């Protein structure tokens, strides 16, 4: 049961830290973590593509696609989110398709395009979660 921890204690510590962060995070923070995870995977994929490490590049792109499809897209509430949620769904689908094309054709510019889109969305998401000065003075916190 504890054998894997003795072989890689730093990895076990990181896993426990990540699980603790996930379990204690607000829904808003979880989405921010998904954006961060996808951006990290894309940064790795770009470097791996430039280095010619095809297997690692494929794994990193697959990880980014999984985060986009199974995390970001799956978390959309199209009933409550309406047109914005529908637009995001279409954008996430586009990103996944671009990443698939990037992987198949070794197109680093596609990875960069998706990375920029995700970074812009994450910036907007972070702004939603940042209380303005009036809210901070009144003690209100974002949902």
Task: List descriptors.
143 residues, mainly alpha, 7 helices, 85% helix, 0% strand, disordered N terminus, disordered C terminus
Task: Give an overview of the whole structure.
With 143 residues, this protein is mainly α. The protein is 85% helix and 0% strand. It contains 7 helices and no strands. The protein has helices at 3-7, 9-24, 27-51, 54-73, 78-105, 108-129, 133-138. The longest helix is centred in the middle third of the chain and has 28 residues, at 78-105. It is globular.
Task: Label the overall shape.
Answer: globular
The major sheet is characterized as: none
Q: Could you tell me the radius of gyration in angstroms?
A: 18 Å
| Global structural class | mainly alpha
What is the first-to-last residue Cα distance? Answer: 39 Å
Order of helices and strands: HHHHHHH
Number of DSSP E strands:
0
Query: What is the helix fraction of residues, given as a range?
Result: over 70%
Number of helices: 7
Average pLDDT figure:
83
Low-confidence runs of at least 5 consecutive residues: 1-6, 9-18, 133-143
Strand content: under 5%
Write a concise synopsis of the structure shown.
With 143 residues, this protein is mainly alpha-helical.
Secondary structure elements and pairings:
Blueprint: H1 3-7, H2 9-24, H3 27-51, H4 54-73, H5 78-105, H6 108-129, H7 133-138
């Amino acid at each position: 049961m504890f054998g894997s921890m003795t072989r890689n204690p730093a990895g076990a510590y990181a896993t426990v830290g990540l699980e603790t962060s996930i379990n204690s995070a607000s829904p808003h923070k979880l989405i921010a973590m998904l954006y961060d995870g996808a951006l990290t995977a894309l940064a790795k994929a770009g470097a791996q593509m430039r280095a010619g490490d095809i297997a690692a590049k494929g794994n990193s792109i697959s990880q980014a696609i999984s985060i986009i499809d199974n995390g970001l897209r799956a978390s959309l509430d199209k009933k409550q989110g309406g047109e914005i949620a529908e637009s995001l769904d279409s954008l996430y689908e586009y990103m996944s398709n671009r990443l698939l094309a990037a992987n198949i054709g070794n197109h680093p510019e596609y990875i960069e395009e998706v990375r920029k889109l995700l970074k812009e969305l994450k910036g907007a998401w972070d702004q939603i979660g940042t209380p303005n000065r009036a809210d901070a003075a009144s003690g209100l916190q974002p949902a």
